[in-house]
């Protein structure tokens, strides 16, 4: 309802800020501490509008005044200019403004209507009543009713309204004073708005600069660590933890999208796009792991970035593909016979690959241990160098393991339909979410336990005896 | 031979250079031929190094599948270095990439390509085709 009345206000460019600030506007009005108050500005403008309309209705007296007031708002639309320039145009201007107001439709001036709509959202109840009075004024020049408001502009309006209704020819001095006060208020509002806009612009610039710095530091941080950590305080391990945290957030977002897509029963093509996107998401994490492994292979392979439960089941720095396939075979419904056979085959091949890589890793471990153990007590530097060289192979194993995981996921998507693939991703995501929840539950449980066990120290010996009993039974069979 | 090359150098540097290039190319061709000869001898040939663990992983993969492979330990071969270089050229890579596997006389590649083929499901047909796997 307010928008129709405001349609008459004809805001234009100087209030372009309205276009940008939408939602926070209402908070701006309430928050006097922000240093800018649209309210007073609105009132000042409204007063001007009222003033000019008054001028139109009392054409003879106000021919000079509108020119003076319009100087303050040079970018008012032409309508007002026309209405002010010639007394002959006053009536037409008045009629057009009336029609615009009474039409209760979109403002004929296109660039103003979005602004007017936004302006409507800015107005507090004070302004609503204030604007209402304009309509009343144009329609029947009645007594203005305003809510009790401490704002001086309202008092001015009351005074003015009272003046105009009671007196058809207000005194020059009075109107001059009111005009001057209006001018002052409008000028102050404009200055405040200017200052606020400048503040916003500077903080925006600062924000973009900060973002750029962050990006640069992040990329430089990783790069520097490769070259020996020159000038970088962030270790590559910590960097990877941050990257992984971001990847997890992205993962959650993509999984929610997949879930919504499945529930909304989107078309196959759209689902395929999402599934491909999710595969790329996984490719991304494998890529980052590879990059980090060049700098800090132990962090990645030991799973310092995982939760405790995940770390327990870790295989060469990540999940074991055959386990995931097995879980999917058990959890997925509505899978055709052929697909199940395919998945069993995939599981079999990945098991063989895992076995091979594990054996290779065992041999590496054995070789390193032999090298270090066989080093002479004095000056075993040579062996240490050899051992370090052998450890470099760890990165290769991690890369092969990640490659295996990546290939398994891609092959899975080839075996299944798009919807089944989406569901399997959801199952995997849910599984890992539960693992992480398990970790945190366990952490809180162990915290409680330490409080309890300290009270039970006296019973410790009896429990030990009970534990020994079963082991006796084991050996008795021999 | 040395005197020949010295004379050439004294007389014509460009020819000397071209002669060296030609000789290197012949050697490379020899090497390539040698490699091709080796890989055609057996259904599955792995070029590996006895101390390399990834090679051990590849050998265990084939063992686990029941495939008999011929393993060429390049660190125990007199011309091992040159063979390694030839293999690197074949794979179009600059880093040492042992192990390298050939199936049925054709280049398959390094460990990651092999794993990709295996997960794809295309390794077993390839082995059957080469006669390395029955069943």
Automatic annotation (TrEMBL), chain A:
InterPro entries xrefs: bZIP, bZIP_sf, TGA_domain
Keywords per UniProt: Activator, Coiled coil, DNA-binding, Nucleus, Transcription, Transcription regulation
Positions of region (Disordered): 81-121, 143-174
One GO cellular component, as annotated: nucleus
Domain DOG1: 237-445
SMART domains reported for this sequence: BRLZ
A Pfam entry, by short name: DOG1
One of the protein's GO biological processes: DNA-templated transcription
Protein family per UniProt: Belongs to the bZIP family.
This protein's name: Transcription factor TGA9-like isoform X2
Source organism phylogeny: Eukaryota, Viridiplantae, Streptophyta, Embryophyta, Tracheophyta
UniProtKB/TrEMBL annotation, chain B:
Keywords, in A-Z order: Cytoplasm, Redox-active center
Domain of life: Eukaryota
Gene Ontology terms: cellular component: cytoplasm
Signal peptide: none
Subcellular location: Cytoplasm
Principal location: cytoplasm
Pfam families: Glutaredoxin (PF00462)
Domain annotation Glutaredoxin: ranges: 44-108
InterPro entries: GlrX-like_pln_2 (IPR011905), Glutaredoxin (IPR002109), Glutaredoxin_subgr (IPR014025), Thioredoxin-like_sf (IPR036249)
Family that this chain belongs to: Belongs to the glutaredoxin family. CC-type subfamily.
Protein name: Glutaredoxin-C14
């Amino acid at each position: 309802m307010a928008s129709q009345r405001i349609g008459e206000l004809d805001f234009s460019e100087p209030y372009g800020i309205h276009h940008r600030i939408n939602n926070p506007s209402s908070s701006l009005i309430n928050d006097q501490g922000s240093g800018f108050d649209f309210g007073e500005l609105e009132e000042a403008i409204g007063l001007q509008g009222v003033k000019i309309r008054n001028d139109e209705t009392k054409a003879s007296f106000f021919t000079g005044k509108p020119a003076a007031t319009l100087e303050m708002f040079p970018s008012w639309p032409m309508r007002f200019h026309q209405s002010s320039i010639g007394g002959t145009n006053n009536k037409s201007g008045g009629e057009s403004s009336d029609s615009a107001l009474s039409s209760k439709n979109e403002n004929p001036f296109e660039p103003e209507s979005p602004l007017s709509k936004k302006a409507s959202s800015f107005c507090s109840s004070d302004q609503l009543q204030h604007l209402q009075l304009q309509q009343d004024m144009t329609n029947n020049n009645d007594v203005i009713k305003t809510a009790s408001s401490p704002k001086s502009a309202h008092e001015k309006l009351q005074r003015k309204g009272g003046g105009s209704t009671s007196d058809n020819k207000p005194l020059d001095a009075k109107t001059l004073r009111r005009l001057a006060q209006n001018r002052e208020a409008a000028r102050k509002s404009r200055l405040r708005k200017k200052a606020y806009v400048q503040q916003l612009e500077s903080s925006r610039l600062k924000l973009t600069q900060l973002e750029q710095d962050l990006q640069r530091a992040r990329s430089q941080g990783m790069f520097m660590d490769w070259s020996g950590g020159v000038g970088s305080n962030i270790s590559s391990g910590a960097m990877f933890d941050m990257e992984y945290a971001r990847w997890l957030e992205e993962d959650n977002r993509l999984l929610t999208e997949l879930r919504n897509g499945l529930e909304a029963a989107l078309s196959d093509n759209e689902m395929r796009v999402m599934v491909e996107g999710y595969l790329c998401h996984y490719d991304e994490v494998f890529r980052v792991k590879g990059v980090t492994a060049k700098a800090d292979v132990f962090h990645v392979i030991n799973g310092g970035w995982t939760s405790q439960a995940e770390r327990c089941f870790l295989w060469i720095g990540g999940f074991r593909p055959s386990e995931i396939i097995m879980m999917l075979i058990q959890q997925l419904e509505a899978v055709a016979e052929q697909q199940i056979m395919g998945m069993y085959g995939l599981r079999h091949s990945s098991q063989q690959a895992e076995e091979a890589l594990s054996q290779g890793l065992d041999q590496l471990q054995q070789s390193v241990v032999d090298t270090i153990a066989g080093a002479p007590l004095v000056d075993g530097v040579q062996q240490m160098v050899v051992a370090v060289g052998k450890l470099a192979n760890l990165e290769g194993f991690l890369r092969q393991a990640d490659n295996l995981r990546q290939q398994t996921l891609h092959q899975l998507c080839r075996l299944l339909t798009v919807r089944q693939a989406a569901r399997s991703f959801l199952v995997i995501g849910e599984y890992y979410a539960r693992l992480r929840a398990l970790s945190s539950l366990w952490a809180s449980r162990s915290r409680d336990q330490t409080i309890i066990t300290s009270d039970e120290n006296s019973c410790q010996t009896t429990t030990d005896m009970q534990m020994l009993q079963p082991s006796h039974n084991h050996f008795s069979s021999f | 031979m040395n005197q020949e090359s010295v004379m050439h150098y004294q007389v014509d540097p460009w020819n000397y250079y071209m002669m060296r290039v030609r000789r290197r190319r012949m050697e490379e061709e020899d090497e390539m031929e040698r490699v091709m000869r080796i890989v055609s001898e057996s259904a599955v040939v792995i070029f590996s190094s006895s101390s390399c663990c990834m090679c051990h992983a590849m050998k265990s993969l084939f063992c686990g599948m029941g495939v008999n492979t011929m393993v060429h330990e390049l660190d125990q071969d007199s011309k091992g270095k040159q063979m390694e270089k030839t293999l690197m050229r074949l794979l179009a890579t600059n880093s040492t990439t042992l192990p390298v596997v050939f199936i049925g006389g054709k280049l398959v590649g390094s460990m990651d390509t092999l794993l990709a083929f295996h997960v794809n499901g295309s390794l077993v047909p390839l082995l059957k085709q080469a006669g390395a796997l029955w069943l």
